[in-house]
Design goal:
This protein is an alpha+beta fold. The protein has a domain of about 160 residues. It has 9 helices and 14 strands. The strands form 4 sheets. Strands 1, 7, 10, 11 and 14 form a 5-stranded antiparallel β-sheet that branches. Strands 3-4-5-12-13 form a 5-stranded mixed β-sheet. Helix 5 packs across helix 9. The chain is globular and about 75 Å long.
């Protein structure tokens, strides 16, 4: 093996993929056409259309009403001129039927228009195409490696497990009728007691995780993942499919969640599932076996210890061992909540 080897891998999507970027599509920067598609544009580009009527009507909408009604009127004006706006749009995404129906219902005063913001998935600013950050993929690999390493580490003590169970039992579920369930703190416990115990348990778990990481991944200098450089996964085709869908919170028990009872929802932009070779990514692996375990000042490791170095095959095995059972569990849960799911097939 050479000192440095670069591989190009292709990623196919098994499920919808969303990696947040802290940006939203807001109603004042998108229009929706009759083909069930959302088109996002930069509002500063409206001037390039040279249409004074748009500016005049937007200004008029801003002076009529306040807050939500004002926002609805501005969006209506923009949508009226969508045939002119769509050509200057930077990106577009399909809307699933449920999102589209909800969007249409909010055009009347009887529905909350303020909730029409949509969380974007990570994208490249110049091309506007979605991508998978290399740091996210590397983080997923790190999680799998640490989980694999934890098998050989002494498990959490029996007393600590019992303590976690006692903590969980501080909360009880209350049935308010009509399948409306809520969680509350049991009467014998104060909020102060609950938060104090939560803080202590989190501290112990963080210490366990920190010890595990130091033992198997070491410091920055001796971290075996230093040998793996993962680039950002970029779209293999400009036609990569995206769709806006609801992000739903469902209870594994099948009962209604608080989000369902209160009608709470989040709308996310996803890279669509079942797209073969949708993303391409470059991965560079260094071979440090000849210098593994080197020490510098104060007898401190400056390269990963030999037992810490991982081959690409070992990384794949660790990822499969960690993620495949979770995928299978998710599939079983989806079938339980929605029998006959076409996605599971």
């Amino acid at each position: 093996m050479k000192f440095m080897n670069t591989y190009e891998w292709m990623i196919s999507t098994l499920s919808p993929v969303h990696i947040g970027c802290a940006e939203d599509y807001t109603p004042t920067e998108y229009v929706v056409d009759n083909t069930v598609k959302l088109y996002c544009f930069y509002i500063g580009h409206l001037a390039s259309l040279g249409d004074a009527a748009i500016s005049k009507e937007v200004s008029s909408a801003l002076t009529a009403g306040t807050g939500e009604e004002q926002l609805r009127k501005v969006h209506k004006v923009l949508n009226n001129y969508r045939d002119k706006i769509i050509p200057i749009a930077g990106t577009s995404a399909a809307m699933c039927s449920g999102v589209l129906n909800h969007y249409r219902s909010t055009q009347s005063r009887n529905h909350d228009f303020n909730r029409n913001g949509i969380e974007r998935t990570s994208y490249q600013p110049l091309s506007q195409l979605p991508y998978l950050p290399g740091s996210s993929i590397k983080g997923a690999i790190r999680t799998a490696l640490l989980d694999n390493a934890s098998v050989s580490k002494a498990p959490l003590g029996k007393q600590f497990i019992e303590r976690i169970n006692r903590f969980n039992n501080m909360i009880e579920e209350v049935n308010h009728g009509s399948e409306k369930f809520a969680l509350r703190l049991k009467l014998q416990f104060s909020r102060k007691d609950y938060l104090a115990e939560l803080k202590n348990i989190e501290k112990e778990l963080a210490g366990y995780a920190d010890d595990l990481e130091k033992e198997h991944l070491g410091s920055f200098e001796s971290d075996p993942l230093r040998t793996i450089k993962i680039g950002d996964g970029i779209a293999n085709d400009t036609g990569i499919e995206k769709e806006i869908r609801f992000c739903l919170n469902r209870s594994r028990s099948g009962r209604k969640t608080q989000a369902q009872s209160k009608g709470l929802y989040t709308r996310l932009e996803y890279i669509v599932e079942h797209q073969p070779e949708a993303i391409k990514i470059a991965i560079t692996i260094q071979d440090l076996s000849s210098v593994a375990g080197m020490k510098g000042k104060h007898n401190k490791l400056i390269t990963p210890a030999p037992y810490c170095l991982k081959t690409w095959e070992q990384i794949i095995e660790a990822c499969n061992a960690y993620y495949l059972p979770r995928l299978q569990k998710d599939l079983q849960l989806v079938l339980k909540l929605k029998p006959g799911s076409t996605w599971v097939k």
